[in-house]
Amino acid sequence: MTSRKTYDSDSAIDLWRFHDENEPFNVNMIGFTDCTLNKNAKYRIERTDSSVAAIEYIREGSGIFEINGKKYRPCKGSVMILTRGSDHVYYPDEKDMWKKDWVIVDGPFADALLNSYLPEGEYCLDNCDISLFFERLRKLAGETPFNYTGFVDNAVFLFCDALQTIKNMSRKKCNRIALAVKTALDSNVEGCITIEEIAASLHYSPNYVIRQFKDQYGCTPYKYYLDRKLKLARLYLRNTELSVTEIAERLCFADQHYFSNVFRQNSGMCASDYRRQYAPCSDD
Predict the structure, then answer these.
(1) What is the pLDDT of residues 42-80, one digit of tens each?
(2) CATH class, range 10-170
(3) d(Cα 62, Cα 253) in Å, to the nearest integer?
(4) What is the mean predicted confidence (pLDDT) over 145-171?
(5) CA–CA separation, 6 vs 33, rounded Å?
(6) pLDDT for res 4
(7) Which member of 8, 232, 245, 247 has the greatest number of CB atoms within 10 A?
(8) Parallel, antiparallel, or unpaired for β 99-106 and 88-92?
(9) CA triplet 5, 78, 100: central angle to 5 degrees?
(10) The predicted structure's pLDDT at residue 3
(11) Whether 265 contacts 259, CB under 8 Å
(12) 3-state SS record for the chain
């Protein structure tokens, strides 16, 4: 584990001396870093099995954030969540240096709040303005005379409010993910695309993408994709003279036999019977 590094460009309120490991919630440090003030400094923070948790808010710039095997590119308006026990490294783009707020917290209640409010396995959210949280936190820490116990009691409420904002933005983000998956599937009805390909393009795991889609639309991406293909197949059967084989090929089914089995299972009849029954040009 490595501790927090500070630079001349850091404006920090150090509260480590007040830390009480018997308390469920501690605020250890509140800071603001302007990486543009010293572009020769190596603003690289790296922790292994982190003993603390932190929230960082990017006001300007962009950079790299890697945590527990995931990689993000936080930019203006992004929030980075660094959880206890995580392995992480983050640093700004040398050509677009960060200006960012950060706060380090720890304690079982801090962990419980993060685990309760944040989406599982997600550590970075874009377009999530929590600048007011940091402004209020600094103002609270600057009150005189300073009483750490009273400060923490009030800081908890600010922390909860910030996490609620992050959670609400996370929900909107999940809706955007589900919509992006749906758009990709709709655009490839006459093609072939996998959930692995879609997830990779969105920079999320397939399981996470499937879960967001199912929560939003009530079915898995696979079922939705298959239903869209079969709906188009029925349109072709009713309104074109394409053969069953040609329809199967156009919709990228493995072969006519597989298409016919899937069609029968979902429509209650084989494709040729469906055409005879519903096609306008049918002799029936």
Answers:
(1) 889 999 999 889 999 999 999 999 999 888 999 999 999
(2) mainly beta
(3) 43
(4) 92
(5) 9
(6) 52
(7) 247
(8) unpaired
(9) 35
(10) 47
(11) no
(12) CCCCCCCCCEEEEECHHHCCCCCCCEEEEEEEEEHHHCCCCCCCEEECCCCCEEEEEEEECEEEEEECCEEECCECCCEEEECCCCCEEEEEECCECCEEEEEEEECHHHHHHHHHHCCCCCCEECCCCCHHHHHHHHHHHCCCCCCHHHHHHHHHHHHHHHHHHHHHHHHHHHHHHHHHHHHHHHCCCCCCCCHHHHHHHHCCCHHHHHHHHHHHHCCCHHHHHHHHHHHHHHHHHHHCCCCHHHHHHHCCCCCHHHHHHHHHHHHCCCHHHHHHHHCCCCCC
Average pLDDT, the chain: 90
| Domain assignments of the chain as residue spans, ordered by start | 10-170, 187-284
Range 221-229, long-range pairs (CB < 8 A, 24+ positions)? 221/181, 221/185, 221/195, 222/195, 224/182, 224/185, 225/185, 225/189, 226/262, 226/266, 227/266, 228/185, 228/186, 228/189, 229/189, 229/253
1: its two tokens:
């584990």
Residue of 187, 256, 264, 196 whose CA lies nearest to 225: 187
